[in-house]
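Blackboard transcription, Thursday session:
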Amino acid sequence: AQSVAQPEDQVNVAEGNPLTVKCTYSVSGNPYLFWYVQYPNRGLQFLLKYITGDNLVKGSYGFEAEFNKSQTSFHLKKPSALVSDSALYFCAVRDGSGGYNKLIFGAGTRLAVHP
Amino acid sequence: KAGVTQTPRYLIKTRGQQVTLSCSPISGHRSVSWYQQTPGQGLQFLFEYFSETQRNKGNFPGRFSGRQFSNSRSEMNVSTLELGDSALYLCASRQAPSTDTQYFGPGTRLTVL
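(Written on the board underneath:)
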Protein backbone atom coordinates (compact mmCIF):
# COMPACT_ATOMS: atom_id res chain seq x y z
CA ALA A 1 0.00 0.00 0.00
CA GLN A 2 1.12 3.53 -0.73
CA SER A 3 1.99 5.67 2.27
CA VAL A 4 3.85 8.79 3.31
CA ALA A 5 5.35 9.70 6.65
CA GLN A 6 6.10 13.11 8.06
CA PRO A 7 8.42 12.41 10.98
CA GLU A 8 8.15 15.83 12.62
CA ASP A 9 4.96 17.12 14.21
CA GLN A 10 6.38 20.62 14.35
CA VAL A 11 9.30 22.52 12.88
CA ASN A 12 10.49 25.81 14.35
CA VAL A 13 12.53 28.21 12.25
CA ALA A 14 13.70 31.79 12.65
CA GLU A 15 12.60 34.22 9.97
CA GLY A 16 15.22 34.51 7.25
CA ASN A 17 16.67 31.08 7.92
CA PRO A 18 16.28 28.15 5.51
CA LEU A 19 13.52 25.68 6.30
CA THR A 20 13.06 21.98 5.61
CA VAL A 21 9.92 19.94 6.18
CA LYS A 22 10.57 16.23 5.85
CA CYS A 23 8.58 13.56 4.03
CA THR A 24 9.37 9.94 3.27
CA TYR A 25 7.29 7.67 1.10
CA SER A 26 6.57 4.03 0.46
CA VAL A 27 5.08 3.13 -2.91
CA SER A 28 5.00 0.34 -5.41
CA GLY A 29 5.95 1.65 -8.80
CA ASN A 30 6.85 5.22 -9.65
CA PRO A 31 5.89 7.76 -7.00
CA TYR A 32 3.68 10.75 -7.71
CA LEU A 33 4.30 13.10 -4.79
CA PHE A 34 2.67 16.33 -3.69
CA TRP A 35 2.96 19.08 -1.09
CA TYR A 36 -0.01 21.06 0.16
CA VAL A 37 -0.22 23.84 2.75
CA GLN A 38 -3.15 24.63 5.03
CA TYR A 39 -3.61 27.97 6.75
CA PRO A 40 -5.98 28.30 9.73
CA ASN A 41 -9.63 27.88 8.79
CA ARG A 42 -8.70 27.33 5.16
CA GLY A 43 -8.59 24.40 2.80
CA LEU A 44 -5.46 22.90 1.34
CA GLN A 45 -3.46 24.89 -1.17
CA PHE A 46 -1.37 23.06 -3.77
CA LEU A 47 2.35 23.92 -3.57
CA LEU A 48 4.11 21.55 -5.93
CA LYS A 49 4.32 18.03 -7.28
CA TYR A 50 6.83 15.51 -8.55
CA ILE A 51 5.80 13.21 -11.35
CA THR A 52 9.01 12.60 -13.25
CA GLY A 53 12.06 14.49 -14.43
CA ASP A 54 14.29 16.79 -12.39
CA ASN A 55 14.72 15.81 -8.79
CA LEU A 56 14.41 19.44 -7.69
CA VAL A 57 10.87 20.68 -8.13
CA LYS A 58 9.99 24.36 -7.83
CA GLY A 59 6.58 25.43 -6.62
CA SER A 60 4.53 28.32 -5.35
CA TYR A 61 5.60 31.00 -2.85
CA GLY A 62 9.32 30.22 -3.25
CA PHE A 63 9.04 26.63 -2.07
CA GLU A 64 10.87 23.77 -3.67
CA ALA A 65 11.16 20.06 -2.97
CA GLU A 66 13.91 17.57 -3.51
CA PHE A 67 13.03 14.07 -4.65
CA ASN A 68 15.53 11.42 -3.54
CA LYS A 69 14.78 7.96 -4.82
CA SER A 70 17.49 6.14 -2.88
CA GLN A 71 16.31 7.63 0.41
CA THR A 72 12.62 7.52 -0.60
CA SER A 73 12.28 11.12 0.50
CA PHE A 74 10.58 14.23 -0.80
CA HIS A 75 11.56 17.07 1.54
CA LEU A 76 10.06 20.53 1.20
CA LYS A 77 12.49 23.43 1.34
CA LYS A 78 12.67 27.19 1.23
CA PRO A 79 15.89 29.23 1.30
CA SER A 80 14.56 32.02 3.51
CA ALA A 81 11.53 31.54 5.75
CA LEU A 82 8.86 34.18 6.29
CA VAL A 83 6.58 34.54 9.30
CA SER A 84 3.68 34.21 6.85
CA ASP A 85 4.91 30.69 5.97
CA SER A 86 3.67 29.51 9.37
CA ALA A 87 1.03 26.89 8.58
CA LEU A 88 0.32 23.16 8.44
CA TYR A 89 2.10 21.31 5.64
CA PHE A 90 0.99 18.02 4.16
CA CYS A 91 2.91 15.61 1.99
CA ALA A 92 0.81 13.30 -0.17
CA VAL A 93 1.28 10.40 -2.58
CA ARG A 94 -0.97 9.30 -5.38
CA ASP A 95 -2.59 5.93 -4.84
CA GLY A 96 -3.50 4.51 -8.22
CA SER A 97 -4.46 1.05 -6.99
CA GLY A 98 -7.53 -0.51 -8.49
CA GLY A 99 -7.31 1.78 -11.47
CA TYR A 100 -8.33 4.75 -9.36
CA ASN A 101 -6.41 7.85 -8.43
CA LYS A 102 -6.68 9.31 -4.93
CA LEU A 103 -4.32 11.05 -2.54
CA ILE A 104 -2.88 9.49 0.59
CA PHE A 105 -1.77 12.19 3.02
CA GLY A 106 0.82 12.28 5.75
CA ALA A 107 -0.14 13.39 9.24
CA GLY A 108 1.04 16.93 8.60
CA THR A 109 3.85 19.08 9.99
CA ARG A 110 3.20 22.38 11.68
CA LEU A 111 5.73 25.00 10.65
CA ALA A 112 6.27 27.91 13.03
CA VAL A 113 8.44 30.75 11.78
CA HIS A 114 9.51 33.13 14.54
CA PRO A 115 10.38 36.79 13.94
CA LYS B 1 -11.01 31.48 -12.54
CA ALA B 2 -12.98 30.98 -9.34
CA GLY B 3 -11.77 28.27 -6.99
CA VAL B 4 -13.63 25.42 -5.38
CA THR B 5 -16.49 26.65 -3.23
CA GLN B 6 -18.14 24.83 -0.37
CA THR B 7 -21.31 25.64 1.51
CA PRO B 8 -22.01 26.06 4.28
CA ARG B 9 -18.68 26.92 5.87
CA TYR B 10 -19.84 26.03 9.38
CA LEU B 11 -22.55 23.73 10.60
CA ILE B 12 -23.71 22.59 14.02
CA LYS B 13 -25.92 19.52 14.33
CA THR B 14 -26.98 17.13 17.06
CA ARG B 15 -26.53 13.39 17.20
CA GLY B 16 -28.96 11.44 15.09
CA GLN B 17 -29.61 14.24 12.63
CA GLN B 18 -28.51 14.21 9.03
CA VAL B 19 -26.56 16.82 7.10
CA THR B 20 -25.91 17.75 3.48
CA LEU B 21 -22.79 19.58 2.36
CA SER B 22 -22.33 21.15 -1.05
CA CYS B 23 -19.33 21.61 -3.31
CA SER B 24 -18.97 23.52 -6.57
CA PRO B 25 -15.81 22.61 -8.49
CA ILE B 26 -13.59 24.86 -10.52
CA SER B 27 -15.17 25.62 -13.88
CA GLY B 28 -14.28 22.88 -16.34
CA HIS B 29 -13.41 20.37 -13.64
CA ARG B 30 -15.59 17.31 -13.80
CA SER B 31 -14.17 15.23 -10.96
CA VAL B 32 -14.98 15.95 -7.33
CA SER B 33 -13.48 14.17 -4.33
CA TRP B 34 -14.38 14.46 -0.67
CA TYR B 35 -12.01 14.16 2.28
CA GLN B 36 -12.57 14.18 6.03
CA GLN B 37 -10.02 15.91 8.25
CA THR B 38 -9.88 15.23 12.00
CA PRO B 39 -7.12 15.79 14.56
CA GLY B 40 -6.96 12.08 15.33
CA GLN B 41 -7.23 10.49 11.89
CA GLY B 42 -5.83 13.25 9.72
CA LEU B 43 -6.98 13.54 6.12
CA GLN B 44 -8.95 10.59 4.87
CA PHE B 45 -10.47 9.98 1.45
CA LEU B 46 -14.25 9.56 1.41
CA PHE B 47 -15.23 9.19 -2.24
CA GLU B 48 -14.86 10.57 -5.73
CA TYR B 49 -17.47 11.42 -8.33
CA PHE B 50 -17.05 11.85 -12.05
CA SER B 51 -19.77 12.17 -14.66
CA GLU B 52 -22.40 11.77 -11.95
CA THR B 53 -21.00 8.36 -10.97
CA GLN B 54 -19.14 7.36 -7.85
CA ARG B 55 -15.80 6.05 -9.03
CA ASN B 56 -13.99 5.34 -5.82
CA LYS B 57 -14.89 5.04 -2.18
CA GLY B 58 -12.85 5.13 0.99
CA ASN B 59 -13.31 3.10 4.13
CA PHE B 60 -16.30 4.88 5.65
CA PRO B 61 -19.66 3.49 6.75
CA GLY B 62 -22.72 3.64 4.55
CA ARG B 63 -24.00 6.64 6.51
CA PHE B 64 -21.69 8.69 4.31
CA SER B 65 -22.99 9.11 0.80
CA GLY B 66 -22.77 11.55 -2.03
CA ARG B 67 -23.91 12.45 -5.46
CA GLN B 68 -22.92 14.58 -8.38
CA PHE B 69 -25.11 16.61 -10.67
CA SER B 70 -24.85 17.18 -14.39
CA ASN B 71 -23.13 20.54 -13.80
CA SER B 72 -20.43 18.69 -11.77
CA ARG B 73 -21.57 20.16 -8.48
CA SER B 74 -21.50 17.57 -5.73
CA GLU B 75 -23.24 17.01 -2.44
CA MET B 76 -22.22 14.87 0.46
CA ASN B 77 -24.72 13.51 2.96
CA VAL B 78 -24.15 12.07 6.40
CA SER B 79 -27.11 10.41 8.08
CA THR B 80 -27.59 9.52 11.74
CA LEU B 81 -24.80 11.79 12.86
CA GLU B 82 -22.40 10.64 15.57
CA LEU B 83 -20.12 12.74 17.74
CA GLY B 84 -17.14 11.31 15.88
CA ASP B 85 -18.38 12.81 12.64
CA SER B 86 -17.27 16.23 13.84
CA ALA B 87 -14.61 17.22 11.33
CA LEU B 88 -13.58 19.52 8.54
CA TYR B 89 -14.96 18.15 5.30
CA LEU B 90 -12.92 19.13 2.28
CA CYS B 91 -13.92 18.96 -1.33
CA ALA B 92 -11.34 18.79 -4.11
CA SER B 93 -11.80 19.11 -7.83
CA ARG B 94 -9.78 18.24 -10.90
CA GLN B 95 -10.41 18.05 -14.61
CA ALA B 96 -10.77 14.27 -14.65
CA PRO B 97 -9.89 11.29 -12.47
CA SER B 98 -6.75 10.78 -14.52
CA THR B 99 -5.53 14.29 -13.70
CA ASP B 100 -3.02 14.28 -10.90
CA THR B 101 -3.39 17.66 -9.21
CA GLN B 102 -6.45 18.25 -7.07
CA TYR B 103 -7.54 21.70 -5.91
CA PHE B 104 -9.26 22.01 -2.58
CA GLY B 105 -12.05 24.18 -1.30
CA PRO B 106 -12.05 25.93 2.10
CA GLY B 107 -13.98 23.12 3.74
CA THR B 108 -17.12 22.81 5.83
CA ARG B 109 -16.57 22.63 9.58
CA LEU B 110 -19.18 20.23 11.01
CA THR B 111 -19.71 20.08 14.73
CA VAL B 112 -21.94 17.35 16.15
CA LEU B 113 -23.26 17.92 19.66
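Lecturer's comment: The interface with chain A takes residues 4, 6, 33, 35, 42-43, 45, 48, 55-56, 58, 90, 92, 97-98, 100-107, 109 of chain B (CB under 8 Å).
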